[in-house]
Write a structure and sequence with these properties.
768 residues, mainly beta, Immunoglobulin-like, 44-stranded parallel beta sheet, 13-stranded mixed beta sheet, 1% helix, elongated
Length: 768
């Protein structure tokens, strides 16, 4: 028996349990099937010619009827589908072969092609409709000219494990959901996404070798490529035909597991200012080479974009880090220097390199991504000796963090910065948080200010011209050359903690302002001087200590005047005997005005400090600089003397002995780790911790990694070490056989109000 519909675009409804064995031919009009056996026996199959259509409804599973499809639909428009799902969740278990240009549509319900050889492409086929279509079996095709096109708002799910069709996959609307590494067919035919989205399913981790050609933001802005899954890899080349978006959303709870790895080359286009926007809500790692004549890269999203790999990125367009973290592991991460990189408010650039020079011009704004109560900074270096030689321009108040954590005695990490513009039309503040040695070798210019934080040293080595203040909060600012601070008399140097070190160089610091206990260190050769140009501003009860002075002695004082303790204090501190002293017992030898100050506070062979005044003697110094006391401290003699200004005569007189505050304690010391009982997956690690007192140890342990210089920020560490002097023991776990690991002891400690992390010497060991 043979059934045919050939004219009048009429509809034949088949809802019976038919058993005829002949072929079914639809050469015009529609056959609407509502029963699994409506098309009779499976032997002869069904042929759908141009202008004909097969409709399914009522939730049936059509028996294993082979179907030859040569139609895009019936009716005047002939675009409704040669196979059309009208209602219900229906399945076709026979092989569908596209013999001529054809279309499959799902308008309501869902349609599944679930034969082992579900779809054979002997011609190009379009799959569309507003609802969902799934192909669970294999899609094959031996002619590269025959493609699959996805249009309509529905989702096409490809789950075949061995799809090998040679043609392109064209995604012009809706979603193509990938459920297997080979879902998109052979690599000879690329996937073109222009208006739709390729979605990597969350069920598994896939490695897709398919080349992509992408344009747009995807279906309803989901992205041209969007990853929902575990760690999936795209190792085919990605080429932009227009500005495009790639989204990594993933289902991991921690960003240490990258959700999407792009290992193939990324071409931003030879012409056109195409921008690739990466939306990173779960980690994205681009290790392939990024190229392009004018195209650029934009990073958004809460999680981290990694730019890694060994090949040099060569794209010439602008890079914009608009939100979240971007970690770079190569100096060419942002392409050539033609357009530069902008780091917006709420974004952080993490430099995870050692021995590299970043030549990219950088424009920054903001204090970076929040991390608990702190902020990462617009730029943050993690470890290593690196340089940024491109011009650095502030677009707003900004922060740069150098070094993830402070490491006592660490000379292996540092950062050199080139020229910095703090704002031409506006005055912006740049906060430099130096937890490892930092050197600014270029000129700092503009109308803004510099703020120093962090426990390590910032060295200034160029003749700077910035118009704002220099504010020292913590750590040390050290001169690296003569006259590097701004020379304007209106420039203010604010001591708000920390130490200013002359480094053996001469400079003018401008207006002296002291808002917190601070110090100046002039213990350097050759002879040099520091000069403050204007009246000082002291906060009551705060002390400025000057280390490294020594001066002349004239007579012994027995007269004592009033001392206004607790107010503004200048401390002169030396580790040497004063001139004329022969033993430590001569501790009360002072001039009438204390240690006499003529034109300067002199040293025998080290630094000198000038305070500009009409009559630069000590009494005038107290008066003009609003000091209540000068404290003369001599570590050699062991006794200090406080001098104060007499309220009636404004004469500087000697005061009672003064007990200097206790010197700052040093960080704990950790021994080298010993490794024993090393197996393929674990090792026993031990070390010891000691202190000289006055230090609070918050936590300690051992940390290990397959990368040198592991830090306590890693999760691969023990935390059960002592909070006092003692032994640290712990086990390294989840190791990989045949791998070199690096380990060292650590201790997180607090000195006063400052917290740091100390590390012991590093060792390495190899698992068998």
């Amino acid at each position: 028996m043979k059934s045919a519909v050939t004219s009048n675009y009429s509809t034949l409804i088949l809802n019976g349990n038919n058993s005829y064995t002949g072929a079914t031919t639809i050469s015009g009009g529609i056959i609407n099937v509502r029963n699994a056996n409506a098309l009779g026996g499976t032997g002869s199959g069904t042929s759908i010619s141009s202008g004909g259509a097969l409709e399914l409804q009522d939730g049936i599973t059509l028996t294993a009827e082979p179907i030859s499809l040569s139609s895009t639909g019936s009716g005047v428009s002939a675009t409704t589908g040669g196979i059309r799902n009208l209602s219900g969740d229906n399945s076709i278990t026979g092989t569908v072969t596209s013999a001529a240009t054809s279309r499959i549509n799902t308008d309501l319900g869902s349609l599944t092609l679930n034969n082992a050889g579900a779809l054979v492409l002997n011609a190009s086929t379009t799959i569309g409709g507003v609802n969902n279509t799934s192909i669970t079996g294999k899609v094959s095709g031996t002619n590269a000219s025959f493609s699959i096109t996805k249009d309509g708002n529905g989702t096409l799910t490809l789950s075949g494990t061995n799809n090998d069709y040679l043609g392109q996959t064209l995604v012009s609307a809706g979603i193509v959901k990938v459920n297997n590494s080979n879902s998109l067919g052979a690599t000879s035919g690329n996937t073109v996404v222009n208006g739709g989205t390729v979605l990597l399913d969350s069920a598994g981790a896939y490695t897709i070798s398919e080349p992509f050609n992408i344009t747009g933001t995807g279906y309803t802005s989901l992205g041209t490529i969007r990853n929902l899954g575990k760690i999936s890899t795209l190792n085919g080349n990605i080429t932009l035909a227009g500005s495009s978006t790639i989204v990594s959303s993933g289902n991991h709870t921690t960003s240490s597991n990258d959700s999407l790895l792009i290992t193939g080359a990324v071409d931003l286009g030879a012409t056109g200012n195409y921008i690739l926007t990466t939306v990173v809500d779960r980690g994205l790692n681009i290790s392939g080479i990024i190229s392009g004549n004018t195209g650029g890269l934009t990073k958004t999203g809460l999680d981290t974009l990694l730019i890694t790999g060994t090949g040099a990125n060569t794209y010439k367009g602008v890079t914009v880090l608009s939100f979240g973290k971007t970690k770079i592991k190569k100096a060419s991460a942002f392409g050539t220097v033609d357009a530069g990189t902008t780091i917006s408010d709420g974004a952080t650039l993490l430099i995870d390199m050692n021995g590299f020079t970043l030549t990219e011009p950088l424009s920054i704004k903001g204090i970076g991504v929040s991390s608990g109560a702190n902020y990462e900074g617009a730029i943050k270096t993690l470890y290593g000796k690196n340089s940024i030689t491109g011009n650095l321009t502030l677009l707003g108040n900004s922060r740069i963090n150098i070094g993830a954590v402070y490491q006592v005695g660490n000379s292996s990490d540092s950062l050199n910065l080139s020229s910095i513009n703090t704002g031409s039309s506006s005055a912006f503040e740049l906060t430099l948080t130096s937890n490892v040695g930092t050197k600014v070798v270029g000129v700092i210019s503009g109308n803004g200010s510099i703020i120093k934080e962090g426990l390590d040293t910032l060295v200034l080595s160029a003749i700077n011209t910035y118009a704002g203040a220099t504010r020292l909060n913590t750590g040390c600012i050290r001169l690296g050359a003569n006259y590097v601070l701004p020379s304007a008399s209106t420039h203010s140097f604010i001591f708000n903690g920390g130490t200013f070190s002359s480094g053996g160089f001469t400079d003018t610091l401008g207006i002296l302002s002291i808002t917190e206990n601070s110090s100046i260190d002039i213990r350097y050769t050759p002879t040099h001087e520091l000069r403050f140009s204007e009246k000082a501003n002291f906060t009551a009860g705060k002390t400025l200590t000057i280390y490294g002075w020594s001066g002349l002695v004239a007579e012994t004082i027995t007269k004592y005047g009033q001392s206004k303790g607790g107010d503004s204090i200048l401390v002169l501190k030396t580790l040497l005997k004063r001139s004329g002293e022969t033993s430590t017992s001569k501790t009360n030898t002072m001039t009438k005005y204390g240690q006499e100050i003529t034109a300067a506070i002199f040293t025998n062979y080290r630094g000198k400090i000038y305070f500009t005044a009409a009559t630069p003697f000590a009494a005038t110094l107290l008066n003009q600089f609003e000091l209540n006391r000068i404290i003369f401290h001599n570590d050699f003699s062991g006794t200090d003397y406080a001098s104060s200004q007499n309220s009636s005569t404004r004469e500087l007189v000697a005061g009672d002995a003064y007990v200097a505050p206790t010197e700052t304690q040093v960080a704990p010391t950790l021994s080298q780790v010993t490794a024993s009982s090393i197996t393929a997956t674990g090792a026993s690690l031990g070390a010891a911790i000691s202190t000289n007192g006055g230090v609070t140890i918050n936590s300690s342990g051992v940390v290990w990694s397959n990368i040198p210089a592991p830090t306590a920020l890693l999760s691969t560490k023990t935390t059960n070490g002592p909070t006092a002097v003692g032994s640290i023991t712990g086990n390294a776990t989840s190791l990989t056989t045949g791998t070199v690991y690096y380990a060292r002891a650590y201790a997180v400690y607090t000195i006063g109000t400052k917290t740091g992390t100390a590390y012991g010497p590093e060792i390495s060991f190899t698992t068998p």
